[in-house]
Amino acid sequence: MAVSLRRLAVLVAVFLAVLAVCAPLASADKPKECEICVNLLNKVEAQVKVKRTQAKANKEKFDAQSAIETSVDQVCEEDAKTQAEKKVCYYLTPVKRKISQPMSNYMPADRICKKLKAESPELCQVREAVKIDKGNTDYTKLRVKDLKKILADRGVQCSGCLEKEEFVKRCLETEDLHTEL
Questions:
Q1: Residue 68: is its pLDDT beyond 70?
Q2: If we measure between CA atoms, which residue out of 80, 162, 157, 166 comes closest to residue 126?
Q3: How far is CA 132 from each of CA 137, 153, 164, rounded to the nearest angstrom?
Q4: What kind and span of H or E run contains 126?
Q5: Does 115 map to a domain?
Q6: Is 73 within a domain?
Q7: Considering Cα of 26, then 31, then 33, then 38, what sign does the dihedral take?
Q8: Can you give the residue range of the structural domain that contains 168?
Q9: What is the spatial distance between Cα 61 and Cα 49, in angstroms, rounded to a whole number?
Q10: Phi/psi of residue 152, each to 5°?
């Protein structure tokens, strides 16, 4: 009986070790939920921290909500460089008040984005454009939606393509048509 309990303990330990190694690898390829929104709100939070410390150093009154709202505008005007970030800013700027209230109470950016997602689901559907490296891109790891966009950018149609493998094959065939934007 003691031998079987030891074996069971060893098996459980091995299973947990394998799970600990494989779990981060499985999530590495998947984009995080509301990733762009979270990144922008983290930049806003960083700006607000700087403003808060400056106000404390100067012994001035600090209004967190107005500082957050002005930081949202600043981040969207100055830091939003990619098309996806600009699109997320388009959704964020009208709801600055809904961002400033929870952020002033130290709610994390990912929770604020999830809360905003309930009212505006398209906020979290915005994703960065897929970067293609000619000859090095693994098309099998991309979503079908991204594969279709790649083919459309190349001006190629995939008539009769139903399965992901067909889109991957067509992307590989037309890889020489890829141009950097």
A1: yes
A2: 80
A3: 6, 12, 17
A4: none
A5: yes
A6: yes
A7: positive
A8: 139-177
A9: 14
A10: -65, -40
